[in-house]
């Protein structure tokens, strides 16, 4: 799993649908997730630390957690099926741990209100993320190619802590 942060909300240029954009810690990968207007407003409100005059749905859920002594450990966006992302809220209350199925947009809005981390399964990132820093990706690929090209079997043996026959004598 990879921890990600909310980079912001964008609008799809074609259909004007809101997209929440998650980025990894190195700002190398971004995961765009289409969301509804209400969830976009809720996420923006949390990002800007806006306090509504009365609790909205995601505020109410966070309030329930607090009143009942539950903590949101993290949310996990765990799969992508038929262009639909799936997530869970990972909660605990004392020794009791539960996972609750949740739309990613709602999970993100709740995580922001409870300062809980957002985790995404690597398979989801591999399938649905977009590169952010193509230059850094290419530099990394080039460095790896150079490493592999200059690699000798003796280097692998030394890295594993084994001794060659010559070294044992």
Commentary on this structure:
The protein has a single domain (2-132), classed as Bifunctional nuclease domain (Roll), CATH 3.10.690. The chain is 40% helix and 33% strand. It is built from seven helices and eight strands. The protein has helices at 37-47, 57-67, 104-114, 122-128, 134-149, 153-160, 165-168, and strands at residues 2-11, 18-24, 29-34, 71-81, 84-93, 96-102, 118-120, 130-131. The protein has an eight-stranded mixed sheet. Helix 1 runs parallel beside helix 3 (104-114). The chain is globular and about 65 Å long.
Q: Give the structural class.
A: alpha+beta
The CATH architecture category equals Roll
Separation, N- and C-terminal Cα atoms = 45 Å
State which percent range the strand residues make up.
Answer: 25-35%
Instruction: Give the CATH class.
Output: Alpha Beta
Number of strands: 8
Low-confidence stretches: none
The name CATH uses for the topology is Bifunctional nuclease domain
Secondary structure tally, helices: 7
- Biggest pleated-sheet summary: 8 strands, mixed
CATH superfamily: Bifunctional nuclease domain
Q: Would you tell me the overall average pLDDT?
A: 87
Helicity range of the residues? 40-55%
Rounded Rg: 22 Å
Tell me the number of structural domains. Answer: 1
The secondary-structure element order is EEEHHEEEHEHEHHH
User: Strand order within the widest sheet?
Assistant: 6-5-4-7-1-2-3-8
Q: What's the shape?
A: globular
């Amino acid at each position: 799993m990879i921890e990600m942060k909310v980079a912001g909300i964008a609008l799809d240029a074609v259909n004007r649908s809101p997209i929440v954009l998650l980025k990894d810690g190195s700002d190398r990968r971004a995961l765009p997730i289409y969301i509804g207007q209400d969830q976009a407003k809720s996420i923006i409100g949390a990002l800007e630390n806006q306090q509504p005059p009365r609790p909205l749905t995601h505020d109410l859920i966070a309030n329930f957690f607090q009143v009942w002594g539950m903590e949101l450990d993290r949310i996990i966006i765990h799969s992508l099926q038929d262009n639909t992302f799936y997530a869970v809220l990972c909660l605990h209350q004392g020794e009791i741990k539960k996972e609750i199925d949740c739309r990613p947009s709602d999970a993100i809005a709740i995580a922001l209100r409870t300062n809980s981390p957002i985790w995404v399964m690597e398979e989801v990132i591999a399938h649905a993320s977009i590169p952010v820093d193509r230059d850094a990706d290419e530099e990394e690929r080039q460095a790896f190619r150079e490493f592999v090209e200059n690699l000798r079997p003796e280097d692998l043996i030394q890295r594993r802590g084994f001794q060659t026959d010559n070294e044992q004598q």
